Amino acid sequence: MAEKEVEIRTTDGNCDAVLYLVEDGKKRPGVIHYPDIMGIRPSHRSMAKRLAEAGYTVVLVNPFFRTAKGATFDFPPNFAGDPRTMQRFGELAGPLTPEVMERDARTFADFLSTQSSVSDAKMGAVGYCFTGQAALRTAATLPERIGAIASFHGGGLVTDKPTSPHLVLSTIPKNGPKLYFAHAVNDHSMPQEAIEQLNAALKAWGGKYESEVYQGALHGWTVSDSAAYNPPQAEKAFSKLTALFADALRPTSSRASL
C-alpha cells in the first residue's frame, strides 16, 4: 500500500491531501475521505489506509486547508463549550459554505479521476463529524459520479437554516447514490429530534438509504484518538462502510478491475 503526500489545486489554493493506492497496475474505485474538524493526522491516515486496503484508491483530503494544513489544532481542544476551542472551530468551519463544499467536491472527484489507479466505477465519499455534511453535499453535487456516501456521527445535518444539509436530498435522483448515516447517542450536534427530522426527509426523498443510531456510542466513536472511541462499534462502522461501497461502487466498463 503506497501512501503519497499530494496537493490538490483548487480555486482557493492548494489542498493538502494523502493518496492511498496499491501500485500493482490495477484500477480500483476512488473514494474521498473527509476527516473531522481536527484534520489530517495519524488516526485518519490509518482509517483511510485501511479503507484503501479493502479495495479502493482513497484520497484523504484536508477540507480546512484555507485555514490550516495538516492537523488543525495546536492545542488540546475541548468541545464542551471551551471558548478557545469554539473560536478555532469557527475559524476552520467558517470558510466552508455550502457552495465551497460543492466546489471542493468537484475538485476532489476530478483529482481522483485523473489517477491511473482509479477505475471508471462510481466513486464514494465518507465524512466524519462536521464533514458528514460534506459527504452528503458530494452526493448532491455529483449524483452521476458518486455511487454511495457515508456519514459517521455527522453533526448539523439538520438545522433551521435555509442552507441545512438535509435539504439537498431533494436534488439527488431517487436512483442515484446510496446514502448511509450512522448516529451517536446523546449527540448535541445531532440530537434525537434532528435524527428524526433527517429520517423523515430521507423517507420523503425515496432513494436508497440507511440511518441508524449506534447504541452506546458517543460522538466521535469511530476515531481512535477520540475520548469517545468505541472499538466494537468502530468495527461495526467499518464493516458497514465497506459493505456499502462493495455494493454500490460498480465498474462501468471493463477498464475497472480489483
Radius of gyration over C-alpha positions, nearest whole angstrom: 17 Å
**Average predicted confidence as pLDDT:** 95
Oligomer: single chain
Helix content: 25-40%
Strand order of the largest sheet: 1-2-4-3-5-6-7-8
Tally of structural domains: 1
Distance between the termini: 14 Å
Unreliably modeled segments: 253-258
Q: What is the tally of helical segments?
A: 6
| Overall geometry | globular
CATH architecture: 3-Layer(aba) Sandwich
Q: Say how many strands there are.
A: 8
Write down the CATH topology: Rossmann fold
What CATH first level would be assigned? Alpha Beta
Describe the overall structure.
By secondary structure, this protein is α/β, with parallel strands linked by helices. The chain has a single domain (2-245), classed as Alpha/Beta hydrolase fold, catalytic domain (Rossmann fold, 3-Layer(aba) Sandwich), CATH 3.40.50.1820. Residues 253-258 have low confidence and may be disordered. Helix content is 31%, strand content 20%. Helix 3 (98-113) crosses helix 4 (132-141). The protein has helices spanning 42-53, 83-93, 98-113, 132-141, 192-205, 231-248, and strands at residues 2-10, 13-21, 30-34, 57-61, 123-128, 146-152, 178-183, 209-213. The protein has an 8-stranded mixed sheet, with helices on both faces.
